[in-house]
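Subject: for your reference before the review

Hello V.,

The reviewers asked for a structural picture of the protein, and I figured it would be easier to keep everything in one thread rather than splitting it across files. Below is the amino acid sequence we used in the manuscript, unchanged from the supplementary table.
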Amino acid sequence: MTVNEQQTCQNAEAPLVTVLLVTWNRKGEIGKSIDSVLAQTYPNIEILVIDNNSPDGTYEYLQENYPMVQVICSHKNMGCPSARNLGFPNCRGKYIYSLDDDGWLQEDAIEILVRELESEPQIGVVMSQIREVEQDGTFVRKKPANVDGPAYLGTFVGCCFLIRKEVIERIGGFQDDFFRQGEEGDLSIRMMSAGWVVKIQPESVMYHAPSPIGRSQNMFIYYALRNTMKTGFRTWPFPWNWLRAFSIIGKAISYGVRHGYLLLPLQMMVQLIAEPWISRKLRKPAPRHIWRKQRALNANPSSEVPEITGPTS
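And here is what came back from the structure prediction:
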């Protein structure tokens, strides 16, 4: 058998992975992400980019420099969760790796995660370890920093995870009204309720240099608190969904006073009034044992496979 025949055989045996990138106005950064995907040791990859209506020429840049990449242009900036939802049905892979456009991968990152999903059918999502660029050019381990080895988590980080397409087909994708921040917690509790678990494999590494484009701390806090409240009203059991909402109001007041973002508490109060009505048709509380397990894993990741079956009361 020739080398080319051996490579073709390898590709046929390896499940197809679709790498899904969502981008907006980051023409100068997305090339590094794509180059890192093209350099992966895993032999069977396709790349799909969702361009969130970038006015900076991102689409033309990709067409000229990466003709092998499929690009879908949205009619507006949909945010990350909805743009990923747009991409999911267009992914042909058995597995989908979601990568941020300001991050890049260690060359064996995808190969390591595919092995995890192939060996543990109960894993719905497995994420890479994030190493974030510091000002001095060094990298620091992030999210979650308290994990030294493979561990099971209560949620994942949306910039570097591998998910079974079957999960999306069975439980649906992200919430379309989140826009950004916090969508992973909602998907995770729904996924755990359906019998899958979340894992991190730190041997798979994603490097991250947070782009200043489309990023501000106040915006981050607003969406994080708002979407945390949404997740509570939609998936947390009563009365914890309401207690969580009032806790978020307290956090908004604290942050608003400390950082001069005095509009934030008012925004969260408006959300508290509106969200129960908005979420009434979407509300599907998780079984209490799943809710407890997610909270426990968020606080303390476990090296033991979590027990997520059992009584639903």
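For the response letter, the relevant points are probably these. The chain has eleven helices and ten strands. The longest strand covers residues 197-208.

Happy to draft the paragraph if you're swamped.

O.
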